[in-house]
Predict the 3D structure of the following.
Amino acid sequence: MSPDGRRSAERRPPADPSRSVEGLREQIRHHLYRYHVLDAPEISDAAFDALMEELRALEAAHPELVTADSPTQRVGAPPAEGFRPVTHPQPMLSLANAFDEEDLHAWHKRVRAGLGDRPVEFVCELKFDGAAISLVYEHGVFVRGATRGDGVQGEDITPNLRTVRSLPLRLRREADPPEFVEVRGEVYLPIRALEAINQERLQAGQMPFANARNAAAGSLRQLDPAVTARRPLDLFVYQLGAVRGKRFETHWESLEWAREAGFPVDAHARRVSSIDDVIAYVRDWAARRDTLPYGTDGVVVKVDSLDQQAELGATSQAPRWAIAYKFPAEQAETRVRDITVHVGRTGALTPVADLEPVRVSGVIVRHATLHNEDEMRRKDVRIGDHVVVQRAGEVIPEIVRVLPEKRTGEERRFEMPAVCPVCGSPVERRAGEAVSRCTGGASCPAQVLERLIHFGSRDALDIEGVGPKLLQQMLDRDLIRDPADLFTLTKAQVLTLERMADKSADKVIAAIARSRRPSLSRLIYALGIRHVGVHVADLLARHFQDLDRLAGASFEEVRDVPGIGPTIAQSVVEFFRQPATRALLRKLRAAGVRPAAPAASTGRLAGKTFVFTGTLERISRREAAERVAAQGATVSDSVGARTTYLVAGASPGSKFDRARKLGVTVLNEQEFLGLLESR
Ligand code: IVH
């Protein structure tokens, strides 16, 4: 159809171009539907491309016939001033979580009780791992799409959503589109696409996306839709929001309608009539999830009848008629090809297992940290071993256990080197410490590089665009030796680096200049003192209020800061006592680096202690910590009796379980942002 059709269209312009343009669009929409929704294309990709080409040619010849819902109109211009806020027609609630079958039974019991023990049916769906979106169609035409935001208000990302090829710009007439309908779903990156993008990012010296959710959300929130269009994003619709001009009896019916209307609806959803069937579904997918081309982190169970849903209602955060069952951390088996040693910024030597690549929770894993010598011995990991690896939500995978029954006798034990593999300095392991360290200090290139990377990293001085590769080059050319040298770099020097042009050199210089006034807490963290993470840096900054006061503090003074123990105090005092530290501080000051004093601990959240776990979507952890600290709260690393709130992002770790045990209030990201913004 396509090559011939195309030729005749070129040769003999039709009498009424508007009719043939519309006819062509209908054909194209039909094939898009066959491809994206029914997963049953009728024509080859090449034939489809030919149809699109024909439509483009016709529209180019008759620009007056171009409509916004034409399949050619997917990539528009970027919005002039960022994303506009939009209020959702109905709040987008979150879901209560179930972590085991017991939780599911408890939910079932509550549902039964809420409905006076009347029979109830359920719909089981996969929980897609991507970014939640809301789409509004008026009279069948896509008019607006938004992120979930805080659930009440999201961001208008219509131009970006238009680039998602499986999103219908116009609903199919067969479905009799109502006057107004809001549909909700998840935009995601297929696993293969995510891997390819991460590979590219690594090659370009950029941080790979930590997980599928970040990748989807990041791609959707690109200011330029042309960038979004290059990401092969896909969509599943799983819920209707506000509807005017149509009525449904059940959720299942609304899903069937959505499919008919042209939305991609996952074919794995099932309607069942008992909790046993729900549990069978959950078990089945827990075992088979990695056979899917997209990421899923659980199962969502919904009461099917919309009347029953209304009867059960919702709390302020989540409907009572639905629950999300989270799959346990995924594990996979692979082999240890080799064990190498990584030298960190404090000289710590970390043994790293080099693995045969294996897919775990949708990501290819190639390395796993063995933490330190004792850990490696405890697990008895040897080169050549078959092992079980696990990703518990975060990026860095770990080895859960060795499979000794698979040993052949060829495996080799790994010995920690006696000298640093990078600088050759002796390695020492202090009594009582698990960590072996290179003693090379500032003369070990690996330590120097790692310190520089840390200094400019996002949670430290956040020097944009100055990453590992650039820093390595600067070191190689002897342009810098320590962080203070960054601030005296000239543009001419930067221009000598590989692939540096006039503009990019300006950017580097500007980014460095911008970081001259960091908060005191960022600067303390950036110094890379052993045991001083983001939260401890913050405690120190708020207590001492001044870098010189901290540098001159005694062991007792540091130890007595609430939240700081003797180990940290020892490390802090030792660090500031070193002549090299004193010299660095002098140099930084001379280069014009002046920290801004932090806010005192008064404010709305004074006396409250926050702990964070999991990945936050809309705010970095650093920023989250700064914002609560600015309101007087304390941030801590571990959940304990004094914790007021645990803020749990995606894929929370063991802190979550501990908080549940201790009865600590758990906030999801949306609730947390709500708390920050409430008066
Ligand atoms: S239903 C009121 N169904 O999970 C019910 N959500 O906290 C609204 N999600 O970010 C959600 N797959 O985007 C529903 N099949 C599914 C889902 C799903 C993924 C996401 C959703 C939201 C989170 C719910």
About this structure: The chain has five domains: 16-74, 87-326, 331-412, 442-530+553-561+568-587, 609-677. The longest helix spans residues 17-36. The chain has 26 helices and 22 strands. The radius of gyration is 29 Å.
